[in-house]
Amino acid sequence: MEKSKGKILVVEDEKSMREVLTMLLGEEHYDVISALDGREGLACIDKDIFDLVITDMKMPKVDGFELLKKIKEISPETLVIMITAFGTTETAIEAMKLGAYDYINKPFKIDEIRLIVKKAIEKKRLREELSLLREQIKTSYSLENIIGKSARMQEMFAIIPKIAQSSSNVLISGESGSGKELVAAALHNLSLRRDRNFVTINCAAFPEGLLESELFGHMKGAFTGAVYNKQGLFEIADGGSLLLDEIGEMPINLQAKLLRVIESGMFRRVGGTNDLKVDVRIISATNKKIKDEIDAGRFREDLYYRLNVVPINIPPLRERKEDIPLLAEHFLRKMSSTPKRITPEAMKLLLEYQWKGNVRELENVIERTALLIDKDEIKPSDLPSEIMSYPRDKKFIPELTSKGIDVDEIIGDIEKRYLMSALDLVGGVKTEAAKLLNLSFRSFRHRLQKYGIK
Ligand SMILES: Nc1ncnc2c1ncn2[C@@H]1O[C@H](COP(=O)(O)OP(=O)(O)OP(=O)(O)O)[C@@H](O)[C@H]1O
Ligand SMILES: [Mg+2]
């Protein structure tokens, strides 16, 4: 049997009418329940949730109006279509004012019913999807989902809500993958602008001309390829926030136009003749030192001061190692349906690694590793080789100080690294890895067992 396309309640006291509707909608693969009159209709609504209710207007005791009011009260998501006798359009309009979705005049055509119902159900599905997406966006970009217990992240968590409340422009700097976009979205979602759009654009992703028309829009015929009028992102972000990612890549000519919008709120679409005014909060992000760009003559200093009213600097992951375990476990939980853990030895390697790609790199590593392991544990040998054998050429022999060291542990560590690197170099072939280390196969295998390397 085909899956039901939606649940519909038909309330109609006229028997033939009720039967026709029930059969017709049943054939269209809706799940249809019918009620003999308004009172029975009320009982159905109390018991179940419907996507759509089709109800006659005139019925004894409980009429369509009463039913509609009740539905709006207890099941506001349910759509209601009224069936009205010919010539009573006024009551139908009254019903729409009370929140009915649509009305159908009796007598009706079968195709008309089909179409109206199909549209109504589609609309309801879209609405559901949209509100779901909105929720997801809000929750996934508010502060709770930015993870970090290091002092520097905690400091940031404390100031973000305050910064969010103002409309001052913010410049977020940080290495690639450090969470700039996440912070920008949190700034928007914690601001009074949250119900308006949060629009992002990567300035490095467009050639100059295209970037201009993306930002400011264009009129039909403004350039080859401008076949219709198009709003720019500044218009779409009006009342909301605009994230200019990789702002350091913005061409110098466009910088002048950007400066103008910031100073006056005014801009012109490409090929347009009149000025438009907008109210947009600009959040920019960069992984370059803008100061260097200014010195090199590639970035306007006046623009920089306008963009950098409030600076936020996100430290690289390697400078806040306390966040690594938290983040790793967070991504692991997100990735797998069953609980998995990272062994202390593996965590140690994650802590030592340099993370040039910051949180994004960590996220990718955990994602990949979690997919490949078949046990519920991530061990050192499950980790990608670059992490397992890092640092390859730096010394990893700690100096002996007055605090003392655990010599067995350190030597064991060194041995383990060589075992793993050797396996890695020869693609996991044990006999060859043993040769590389000048060990007999038996001795090699014994050592693998000792350290629990797969
Ligand atoms: N503190 C954090 N907590 C949880 N997830 C994070 C954190 N920081 C970054 N991430 C995740 O890491 C990934 C990269 O973050 P984001 O895209 O914000 O970085 P970015 O600084 O904008 O990178 P790029 O410079 O490459 O544009 C995203 O999937 C993001 O969800
Ligand atoms: Mg980014």
Give the tally of β-strands: 16
Question: What general form does the structure show?
Answer: extended
Structural class: alpha/beta
Helix amount, in percent?
40-55%
Question: How would a textbook summarize the main sheet?
Answer: 5 strands, parallel
Beta-strand proportion: 5-15%
Report Rg: 32 Å
Q: Note the gap between the termini.
A: 48 Å
How does this structure look, described?
- With 454 residues, this protein is an alpha/beta fold.
- It has 19 helices and 16 strands.
- It has helices at residues 15-27, 38-47, 64-74, 89-97, 110-140, 151-165, 180-189, 208-216, 233-236, 252-264, 290-295, 301-307, 323-335, 344-352, 358-372, 385-388, 407-425, 430-436, 441-451; strands spanning 7-11, 31-35, 52-56, 79-85, 102-106, 170-173, 198-202, 217-218, 230-231, 241-245, 266-267, 276-277, 281-286, 310-313, 341-342, 377-378.
- The strands form five sheets. It has a five-stranded parallel sheet, with helices on both faces.
- The site of magnesium ion has 3 residues, from helix 7.
